[in-house]
Amino acid sequence: MAYSTMPRTTTIYKDFEPAYEWSQEQNSDTLLIYLPDFKKEDIKVQIDNYGNLRVEGERRLERNQRLRFSKDFEIPDNCNVDDIRANFRDGLLYIWLPKLITKAELEEEKPKVTQKPEEQKPNNQKKETDEKQSTRVQEELEKIEQPKKDHERDDKKKEEFSWPDGISEVKEKEKEVGNGMKKENGSLALDKSQQRKLLINVAVAFMVLVGLGMYVTFKMSKS
């Protein structure tokens, strides 16, 4: 019995290097791989035992020919490996590699609280403050001036005190005598006319005082 043998078809693989590019952003890195004519089921993305990102793909060309690729990419040190995501669309493979957020970066991202500048006091409040200070200063000045005013008031009361007519004349005469005195060589000197006037004034004053004393005695004995 004779057997017919058919030649076995051998698959021919064609390797190629896909084009790719990296895009770096603040919170993640993005790997973009160009894979035209590939389908989602033709592609496989995984992390190998060495911590590298491996992307593999294979598709049929014609008859016994197939197109394939295998590419390893180094994962950045600051990448959060557990959150790596991939998406294939329209011949483009997108792979997102999010970055780890450190404690220091979290502190930097916290909104800084800026201290508000001290609010300026309204003009009317400032005016009230100035008026209070001015009033306080005025009160202190019045405390200092008050004893002086009291002393002047007492002197004025003494000047306004009304003496009896006779006593007032004696006072006026004493003033005239005092005005007629001249100071010579450190002593007071009177001329003859002034001495005569002085004696007359003294006599008149004595008589007035005697008369006033008698009048007062008469009034007291009568009452």
UniProtKB/TrEMBL annotation:
Chain intervals with Basic and acidic residues compositional bias: 108-161, 168-185
Segments passing through the bilayer: 198-218
Annotated keywords: Cell membrane, Membrane, Plant defense, Transmembrane, Transmembrane helix
Protein topology in the membrane: Single-pass membrane protein
Gene3D superfamilies: 2.60.40.790
Signal peptide: none
SUPFAM superfamilies: HSP20-like chaperones (SSF49764)
Coiled-coil region(s): none
Subcellular location: Cell membrane
GO biological process: cellular response to heat; defense response
Segments of this protein annotated with the region Disordered: 108-188
GO cellular component, one term: plasma membrane
Residue ranges of every copy of the SHSP domain listed in the record: 11-114
InterPro entries the record matches: A-crystallin/Hsp20_dom, CS_dom, HSP20-like_chaperone
Main location (coarse class): membrane
Keyword Transmembrane: yes
Source organism, top-level taxon: Eukaryota
Keyword Lyase carried by entry: no
PROSITE patterns the UniProt entry points to: CS, SHSP
Record domain CS: where: 15-114
Family the entry assigns: Belongs to the small heat shock protein (HSP20) family.
Protein name per the record: Inactive protein RESTRICTED TEV MOVEMENT 2-like
Gene designation: LOC120267122
